[in-house]
Amino acid sequence: MNPENVQGMFLCWLQVSRRMEKVMNTDEQRMRQTLLDKYVHRTITSETFRRMMAEHEKKLQKYNREVIESYQLRLEYSEPDEVSSGYIRISRENDPKAVMNVPIIDWRGKIAPYPSLS
Hints:
Layout: E1 9-11, E2 15-16, H1 18-23, H2 26-38, E3 42-44, H3 46-66, E4 73-78, E5 86-92, E6 95-106
Antiparallel strand pairs: 1-3, 1-6, 2-6, 4-5, 5-6
């Protein structure tokens, strides 16, 4: 990837599957609200994105250890490149149709400061 081609990223609107909406517990509802409050409609750089995802992976691992359920949540993500958009996706390990997704597109405008997830 040529870093000059993707100068920044724009985090689009949160998409929550119907299946996830139906089966969402209170912790997942809080996670959805966090995604809405801190991720959606933000512009970030690649460095900030990587730092943010590392922080979110830690939080999700802690959640998976502490919440006693019959499933684990999985975090997947990808930065956009010259040929495809990126994404942040949280899904239930045992139910691939229960998913929250934030599409990420290439952004060529001004990068705004990004708030901490804390």
